[in-house]
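Please check this chain.
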Amino acid sequence: MAVTAPRTIPLVDLSTFTKGDEAQRKAFVEQLGSAFHNIGFVGVTGHGIPKDLIDDFYVAAKQFFALPVEVKRKYEVAGAAGQRGYTSFGKEHAKQSQVADLKEFFQIGQELADKSDSAFEANPQVSEVPEFMKLGTQLYRAFEASGASLLRAIALYLGLEEGYFDQYINDGMSILRAIHYPPITQEPASAIRAEQHEDINLITLLVGASAGGLQLQNTAGEWQEIVPENDEIVINVGDMLQRHTNNYLKSTTHRVVNPPREQWHEPRLSIPFFLHPRPEMKLDVLPSTVTADRPQAYEPITAGEYLDERLREIGLKK
């Protein structure tokens, strides 16, 4: 009999919220909210993101990262702070570290219908792998829809109107990121594939990576492995949502560790979707989350200002 690792994060079924009756919806809101309050991470099934779309995008992403470096570099977008196109190996680091993570990535941003919008910046089209952007854009939309449903449940958990987040995430600055961690060919100086960090955005949706390594830090400071099963996607709270809820919902520290030496030759591919609001959203602390034992922890700031600040800290914006 196969031995399965004990689960470190709860598992919830989003379809009970999107298609369920009142009691099922209520139960889902409670399960999701308490996972975000206590752990900051949750596994989600019934998310409606087609498995074949995920699989096809993985294949296209692998083909992109297999291209020669000088070809990939054609897709680096000057002045985009890594928010569009390719970012080469060794550019990004965690905010408390000066050592670059062992990864390269490609980011697909929002495609606005209104091309005159000042926030609009076109995504580069990869001519060598034409289906990469086509599939990436479809996956982006599927993630957006699932993320919107999760935020509706969170709004209800926080005692807000169900559609509270809708206005802020419609045409929001979300990012679909394909991350490639190449094989490790020599003893790393001190870097791991992704040093411990918290995400910047509202929530992150992550489809199962091609290899393990994702760990979260629990309240006791111990590192716990997250092993997604089957078609489960992993969702975690980002700093924007933690800030907006005055630390009531938790942006948990996580990292991607290097594999055992005998697996160094195996690359790792992972596809997170960072759900960001529109830049003008105010991240001011929600009054309902301020209590005598949880005084207001943050000053007012907009999502755009906060993103700007954080991109500088991680070395993507000069």
